[in-house]
Specification:
- This protein has 6 helices and 10 strands, in the order αββαβββαβαββαβαβ.
- By secondary structure, it is of the alpha/beta class.
- It has an 8-stranded mixed sheet with strand order 3-4-2-5-6-7-8-10, with helices on both faces. Strands 1-9 form a two-stranded antiparallel sheet.
- The longest helix has about 45 residues, at about 1-45.
- The protein is globular and about 40 Å long.
Length: about 180
């Protein structure tokens, strides 16, 4: 009887330790997306969109992905971009993208990235991802983690097709990578 209780105690302890490891990953992931959101916000301060865009009272950032992916993004409600309040719009269906300044394409949309980019190609929308495969298909800015820091790489070919101007400081800070380079 003592051996059974001891066995149950050991198994319970091991399960608690294993589960606590998985629970511990969630805050790190949330922290990662807080950093990516903040970096996206900072990058947008160094971008000029072409004249002639419909006037809006908000700076719209669309995140295309699953509800779980969308929920990871946060932007400060008291900050402005281009003198406009930030509005975060989460969409599962890219065909609902209306006029916005930014689209972040999540990993779950891997199979639709070509259609998404084609759908918004004439709209001067800055595109982001955090997936190398999406970046390779033509997303303009890709986030990646290097030495526990959020960094970004730029796709100048995709950016030049958009009529969006990025400040030269972004090119000096970000890693430059063309779509066809490895």
């Amino acid at each position: 009887m003592i051996n059974v209780k001891r066995h149950i105690l050991i198994v319970t302890t091991v399960l608690v330790l294993l589960c606590s490891g998985f629970v511990g990953e969630t805050p790190q992931l949330v922290h990662e997306y807080e950093l990516k959101s903040a970096t996206l916000f900072k990058i947008c301060n160094y971008v000029t969109w072409p004249d002639g865009r419909p006037d809006s009272s908000t700076f719209d950032i669309v995140v295309v992905g699953t509800p779980e992916e969308i929920a990871q993004f946060t932007f400060p409600s008291d900050k402005l971009l281009n003198n406009k309040a930030i509005r975060l719009i989460g969409l599962d269906d890219y065909q609902l993208i209306a006029d916005c300044q930014v689209v972040f394409i999540c990993h779950s949309k891997m199979d639709e990235v070509s259609q998404i980019l084609e759908f918004i190609q004439d709209k001067s929308i800055l595109t982001f991802s955090d997936d190398e495969a999406l970046f390779e298909q033509g997303v303009m800015i890709n986030f990646y983690i290097d030495e526990n820091r959020v960094k970004f790489e730029l796709n100048p070919e995709a950016i030049s097709r958009s009529n969006i101007q990025l400040h030269s400081q972004l090119y000096s800070i970000g890693k430059i990578k063309n779509k066809q380079s490895n």
